[in-house]
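ok so dumb question maybe but i'm new to this and my supervisor (M.) told me to 'just get the structure for NAD(P)-binding domain-containing protein' and walked off. so i did the thing. is this what she meant?? sequence i used:
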Amino acid sequence: MACLNILFLFLLDDVFHFLWLLRGSSSPLLSFPSGSHLVCSLVDKHPDWRILNLDNLDYCCSSRSLESVEDRENYTFIRGDVCNSRLVNHIFNTEPVDAIFHLAAKTHVESSFQSPSSFHHVNVDGTKVLLGAAYRARHQPRRFIYVSTDEVYGASTDQVFDESSPMRPSNPYSATKAAAEFLVTSYWDKFKFPVIITRSNNIYGPRQYTEKVIPRFLSLLQMDKKCTIQGTLPISRHFLFVDDAIKAFLLLLEKGTVGEIYNVGTTCEIPIVQLARELVKMVKNVPDSEVTDWLEFVPDRPLVDLRYPIRCEKLLQLGWKAQVSWAEGIRRTVKWYQDNPDFWSDTSKDQGPGGEREETADPVRSVHHLMEQ
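this is what came out, is it supposed to look like this??
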């Protein structure tokens, strides 16, 4: 692939999460959260691309996720916010961005019921700011890849969703992702702005924040606490290992058709109770007869979707296939959390009042200074 300048926008929440600018020897590439794994992979494999990371360092983010690349010559970090139109416009006005990966989002479903306006602000308003800045840029981007979620389809007991299935979001989080999708597609319909949308299953792997189900169970077990399972309904999720997700996103950058939507998923569907039992056996090394002792059923939250089955024929036709088995992916994930038990224990030190991360006083000035270096 030719040298690109790519801007990545990520929120470290779901293993993916920062605002990145990758700049090659001629012009940059811009991307937004699927995060630290994708950025580290690109920094390592493409030393001719310069990566600028603009991250708000929200509660679910850790700068430690990027320690392996922070001293690389082709990587720069700036603290900032995708909703800051002055900052985002400055980036697009001063850097020739070729491609955008927009993965930044607030994603915790239960929190979205408690604070729907904050989810709308980040997921919808942030997308609006980014689209506007990218479209008005002097150097027109060649790709804008928006990473959405399978949850926009709503729940299903027997129907398998393809990209033509109607969106029926059932919680404030998925509603904001669906709304952002409409914004993205409007730029294709109106301006033929080269967008691509992905709808992915649950992505898991090392460094994922502990509010998500796999790291939450692992963290509880490491503290000798029980896995808390909400309700007694047969809830299941499809899990895609982060390495396979990265390969899908990069394949779509290279071969995806603009104006199209692509499901990114797997046939690996795991009931949540089975997931908890597997993790108990892996972490606690107890016999089957004692596994139940480490499970606790708690009251369910309202409107829990049972499952989100999707089919990915369009992506498979481009040559993608999930390579990491569930057994291998969960083994690597468990080992990482066992080797790094304190990784997420000190995130509060980077937070400002009220648990919010503090932004630089003048991020635009900071960006300008870093660009001159």
